[in-house]
Design brief:
about 700 residues, alpha/beta, Aminopeptidase, Transcription Elongation Factor S-II, Chain A, 7-stranded mixed β-sheet, 20 helices, globular
Amino acid sequence: MAGTDANAGVADSIVAKWTAAGLEKVHKVEYNVLLSYPPDATNPNYMSIEDSSGKVIYKSEGVSPAIVVNEQSDKDAAVQWVAFSANGNVVGDVVYCGHATDREFQWLQTSGISVKDKIALIRYGGSFRGDKVALAQKHGAVAAILYSDPAEVAPNGIQKDDVYPNTVYMPAHAVQRGTLYKGNGDVLSPLYPSKPNLWKSGSVEEARNRGDLPSIPVIPISYSSAMELISRLDGIPAPRFMQGGLNITYNAGPALKGNLKTRVIVSGHFDERKIQNVIGYVTGAEEPERYVILGNHYDAWTYGAMDPNAGTAVLAEVARATVQVMNETSWRPARSLMFAAWDAEEYGLVGSTEFVEEFAEVLTRRAVAYLNMDCLKGNETIYVQSSPSLQDQAVLAAKNVQNPRKDEIAANRTTVYDTWISLMKDFEYPGVPNIPIPMGGSDQKTFLDYLGIPSVNFAWIDMDKHYTYPLYHTLYETEFTSEHLMDTDRFSIHRAIGQYWIEFAVQLADAPTIPYSLYTLSTKLMYDYIPTLAGSIQSMNMTTYTTDGYQQLLNMVSTASNLQSLTHRLEADSMPRTVDPLIRSRHNDKLIKCFPSYNYHQGRGLTAIAHFSFERCFVNPRGTPDDVTARHVLFSTSKTDAYAGSVMQQVYKVLDDMSDATEAQLPALSNELANQISIVHNSLLCAMSVLADQI
């Protein structure tokens, strides 16, 4: 856990291993940040069910039991808690809120069930836990209880043979830990690095007031404890989409049968602690000032065998193998490889965010790309999230790595790419796997969202549970799980992760020119992002208030067309493309449907070198009205789910606001819609200018 002596020991171990491997300039970058800690195992948080006299009918465990005892003996690791919860002792009625999204709260409201002054019982899954709790608090909840439902974490049943340690599925007394902090970086030093002698302008109270931290007590419980609550809930049955995997009917409450009450007790403390990022280099032979960054965090909630230690171990091996190849050959990458081990990621991407805040100017000028690998989620296929300009290279790297699965090789899927494309086709772009933009749940976020550095986040997953994995953040992420349940063929998946990571990095480091596929980005703009936005505007049927915004969008089409033509010409003879121009006609139909009056043509294009600053054009230094750290105008983290990525989020936020606005509010929102679309358009004009021979 970040800020502890044990975690400092992990940092020392990384320094020692990287130094022994031969990385250059290995050092720590330290910050003092606010973190959150649980009570000790002798007095844990708990949920209890009590009768009218105060007699305890049921009490949750508070700690998770060791199952593979020799690997799970640390009592403090077993404590069930979530970081940054408020302390409290709350007694009241419970409302079952399902996954606690707008859909569930809308159903509760329509059904006449209020969460105000109640305890919200919330299922994990579908979105970030901090967003769930924040929404429950917005609806008036005075406490929240989180649990993992068997529908997601034990779909084959909850009997002994169906769950850990016999399978990867969650056992009855397991609990997912995690942070509730919706922000990134140190709570006390927003926008600036948390260094000695620098003023800290933030406070816990301010973070709570703006909704980044909860002001109510929150506790995670096991599904065995949740069953004690759900089986006693009175009221009407929840609808089918809120029913779960326990063999009972999920009523919504709020009352418990027999006039029983629920108590939630949470105690913990906040403390400023030292965290330590570890940085090392392989210096480039030709462009040493350019960095291709390989990053992984090393802090964990418990033992962290999958999250993050799979990535931490592989990154150390990548460092060792890279230096070995250099020593045995005359090769050295043309551009520098930066190796980064981040601290306090689990609390809210703290270590990486502080690093970006401290070295923003250097990274903006020097970083070619950031390649993140957080955790091992499964063993079926690679899963890649990528900035569009790196998607070509993501695919190419996968084609150059041998498939780690013998059954896939026997089926003539010999490369990582072969399995990937067979399971995750992108039907818009034949021959290309589905590659979404990066989400907000790991360390790539600030590199992309704040600085505009093209970024990738990848993992190995199982298709039926790739959103997370059932043992995520539980006590049972240990060596046994990794070796005997997840990566059972002599760590072949770990090996493939390392091969893919360094293959990708070397492609970016050794290419004669930086191999961004600006054409892929401009094509997605032209044929995906813009038409989708146009359709959203049209579907609102609010012509009076969307005309100016739609005209701005039409203006942007002209620039996007020119940008697409220019990048096509620039890249035609220089690199492979994942977006085949032969499929353009199908996308033209989509474009023409949205903009029938626009005369689209291919255009002559220009000859120019794709400048390093192209991607930085999409960074708005002013941020958004709601979040000055959300600076990327195309790609950012969803405001309703910190685990998800979104496209042109601020534009869509205005559309959402217009849907709920009064007649008096619409004129101002109409202007803001046009303004936000114009901001995106300005980024396209910037991109055109940096590709031009002259201005």
